[in-house]
Task: structure prediction
Amino acid sequence: MEITLDQLLASREQRSARQQELLNDNPDATLVCLTVIMPGSVKRNFFSLITAGAALQSMIERYNGTILHLSTRDLVTGYEAYLVTTLDHAKAKEIASNIEDTHPLGRLFDIDVILPDGVPMSRHQVGCSPRRCLLCDNDARFCMRNRTHSSEELHNKIKDMVNAYVQ
Result:
Protein backbone atom coordinates (compact mmCIF):
# COMPACT_ATOMS: atom_id res chain seq x y z
CA MET A 1 0.00 0.00 0.00
CA GLU A 2 1.37 3.36 -1.01
CA ILE A 3 1.50 6.10 1.59
CA THR A 4 1.10 9.82 1.14
CA LEU A 5 3.56 12.51 2.15
CA ASP A 6 1.07 13.61 4.84
CA GLN A 7 1.02 10.08 6.28
CA LEU A 8 4.81 9.95 6.30
CA LEU A 9 5.11 13.33 8.02
CA ALA A 10 2.44 12.40 10.59
CA SER A 11 4.24 9.15 11.37
CA ARG A 12 7.50 11.05 11.93
CA GLU A 13 5.74 13.38 14.36
CA GLN A 14 4.20 10.41 16.19
CA ARG A 15 7.61 8.68 16.34
CA SER A 16 9.18 11.83 17.75
CA ALA A 17 6.43 12.12 20.37
CA ARG A 18 6.90 8.44 21.34
CA GLN A 19 10.64 8.98 21.63
CA GLN A 20 10.12 12.00 23.87
CA GLU A 21 7.72 10.02 26.06
CA LEU A 22 10.27 7.21 26.46
CA LEU A 23 13.06 9.71 27.18
CA ASN A 24 10.93 11.37 29.86
CA ASP A 25 9.99 8.00 31.40
CA ASN A 26 13.62 6.78 31.43
CA PRO A 27 15.85 9.80 32.16
CA ASP A 28 18.81 7.68 33.32
CA ALA A 29 18.73 5.25 30.39
CA THR A 30 19.46 5.36 26.67
CA LEU A 31 16.84 5.18 23.91
CA VAL A 32 17.56 3.25 20.72
CA CYS A 33 15.08 3.56 17.85
CA LEU A 34 14.89 1.29 14.80
CA THR A 35 13.29 1.98 11.45
CA VAL A 36 13.75 0.19 8.13
CA ILE A 37 15.21 1.97 5.12
CA MET A 38 12.72 1.46 2.29
CA PRO A 39 12.85 4.07 -0.48
CA GLY A 40 9.68 5.07 -2.25
CA SER A 41 6.05 5.33 -1.24
CA VAL A 42 5.55 1.69 -0.17
CA LYS A 43 7.11 1.29 3.28
CA ARG A 44 5.52 -1.96 4.43
CA ASN A 45 6.03 -5.03 2.26
CA PHE A 46 7.54 -8.52 2.39
CA PHE A 47 11.08 -7.16 2.12
CA SER A 48 10.67 -4.52 4.84
CA LEU A 49 9.10 -7.05 7.24
CA ILE A 50 11.94 -9.57 6.75
CA THR A 51 14.41 -6.73 7.28
CA ALA A 52 12.61 -5.50 10.41
CA GLY A 53 12.58 -8.99 11.92
CA ALA A 54 16.28 -9.43 11.27
CA ALA A 55 17.08 -6.01 12.73
CA LEU A 56 15.02 -6.61 15.86
CA GLN A 57 16.58 -10.03 16.43
CA SER A 58 20.06 -8.58 16.05
CA MET A 59 19.29 -5.73 18.45
CA ILE A 60 17.92 -8.09 21.08
CA GLU A 61 21.04 -10.25 20.80
CA ARG A 62 23.49 -7.34 20.90
CA TYR A 63 21.78 -5.36 23.70
CA ASN A 64 21.04 -8.55 25.67
CA GLY A 65 21.10 -8.10 29.43
CA THR A 66 20.79 -4.31 29.22
CA ILE A 67 17.23 -3.95 27.91
CA LEU A 68 14.78 -2.13 30.20
CA HIS A 69 11.98 -1.72 27.65
CA LEU A 70 11.24 -2.97 24.15
CA SER A 71 8.21 -2.10 22.04
CA THR A 72 7.41 -2.28 18.34
CA ARG A 73 4.94 -0.72 15.92
CA ASP A 74 4.09 -2.29 12.57
CA LEU A 75 2.54 0.56 10.60
CA VAL A 76 1.65 1.19 6.95
CA THR A 77 4.32 3.92 7.13
CA GLY A 78 6.95 1.40 8.24
CA TYR A 79 8.13 -0.76 11.08
CA GLU A 80 9.44 0.89 14.25
CA ALA A 81 11.08 -0.50 17.39
CA TYR A 82 11.98 1.31 20.60
CA LEU A 83 14.58 -0.16 22.94
CA VAL A 84 15.59 1.40 26.24
CA THR A 85 18.98 0.21 27.51
CA THR A 86 21.13 0.73 30.58
CA LEU A 87 24.17 1.35 28.35
CA ASP A 88 25.52 4.87 27.94
CA HIS A 89 24.83 6.70 24.69
CA ALA A 90 28.28 6.15 23.16
CA LYS A 91 28.32 2.39 23.81
CA ALA A 92 24.74 2.04 22.53
CA LYS A 93 25.69 3.95 19.34
CA GLU A 94 28.80 1.82 18.83
CA ILE A 95 26.63 -1.30 18.97
CA ALA A 96 24.02 0.23 16.65
CA SER A 97 26.67 1.24 14.11
CA ASN A 98 28.30 -2.18 14.30
CA ILE A 99 24.97 -3.89 13.60
CA GLU A 100 24.35 -1.59 10.63
CA ASP A 101 27.87 -2.21 9.29
CA THR A 102 28.17 -5.98 9.81
CA HIS A 103 24.72 -7.58 9.49
CA PRO A 104 23.95 -8.89 5.97
CA LEU A 105 20.89 -6.61 5.89
CA GLY A 106 22.40 -3.92 8.10
CA ARG A 107 22.53 -1.37 5.31
CA LEU A 108 18.71 -1.46 5.39
CA PHE A 109 18.57 -0.81 9.15
CA ASP A 110 18.36 2.70 10.57
CA ILE A 111 19.24 2.33 14.24
CA ASP A 112 19.37 5.68 16.02
CA VAL A 113 20.47 6.44 19.54
CA ILE A 114 18.35 9.35 20.70
CA LEU A 115 20.04 11.87 22.99
CA PRO A 116 18.13 13.46 25.91
CA ASP A 117 17.35 16.53 23.77
CA GLY A 118 15.59 14.28 21.23
CA VAL A 119 18.31 14.53 18.59
CA PRO A 120 19.86 11.34 17.17
CA MET A 121 23.52 10.78 17.98
CA SER A 122 25.72 10.80 14.87
CA ARG A 123 28.00 7.98 13.77
CA HIS A 124 30.80 10.56 13.70
CA GLN A 125 30.44 11.09 17.47
CA VAL A 126 31.66 7.52 18.09
CA GLY A 127 34.32 7.52 15.36
CA CYS A 128 32.30 5.69 12.69
CA SER A 129 32.34 6.67 9.04
CA PRO A 130 29.17 7.82 7.26
CA ARG A 131 26.82 5.23 5.78
CA ARG A 132 27.68 4.15 2.24
CA CYS A 133 25.24 4.03 -0.65
CA LEU A 134 23.52 0.71 -1.35
CA LEU A 135 24.70 0.77 -4.96
CA CYS A 136 28.02 2.60 -5.06
CA ASP A 137 30.77 3.69 -2.71
CA ASN A 138 29.55 7.27 -2.26
CA ASP A 139 28.22 8.68 0.99
CA ALA A 140 24.56 7.56 1.13
CA ARG A 141 23.40 11.12 1.83
CA PHE A 142 25.09 12.35 -1.35
CA CYS A 143 23.31 9.80 -3.54
CA MET A 144 19.99 10.35 -1.79
CA ARG A 145 20.16 14.14 -2.12
CA ASN A 146 21.20 13.97 -5.77
CA ARG A 147 18.90 11.08 -6.66
CA THR A 148 21.89 9.36 -8.21
CA HIS A 149 20.09 6.02 -8.54
CA SER A 150 16.60 5.18 -9.73
CA SER A 151 13.94 3.80 -7.44
CA GLU A 152 13.95 0.63 -9.54
CA GLU A 153 17.71 0.15 -9.03
CA LEU A 154 17.34 0.59 -5.27
CA HIS A 155 14.37 -1.77 -5.02
CA ASN A 156 16.15 -4.43 -7.07
CA LYS A 157 19.18 -4.21 -4.78
CA ILE A 158 16.96 -4.52 -1.69
CA LYS A 159 15.17 -7.54 -3.17
CA ASP A 160 18.51 -9.17 -3.97
CA MET A 161 19.82 -8.54 -0.44
CA VAL A 162 16.71 -9.89 1.29
CA ASN A 163 16.45 -12.91 -1.03
CA ALA A 164 20.11 -13.78 -0.38
CA TYR A 165 19.52 -13.41 3.36
CA VAL A 166 16.51 -15.75 3.53
CA GLN A 167 18.10 -18.46 1.37
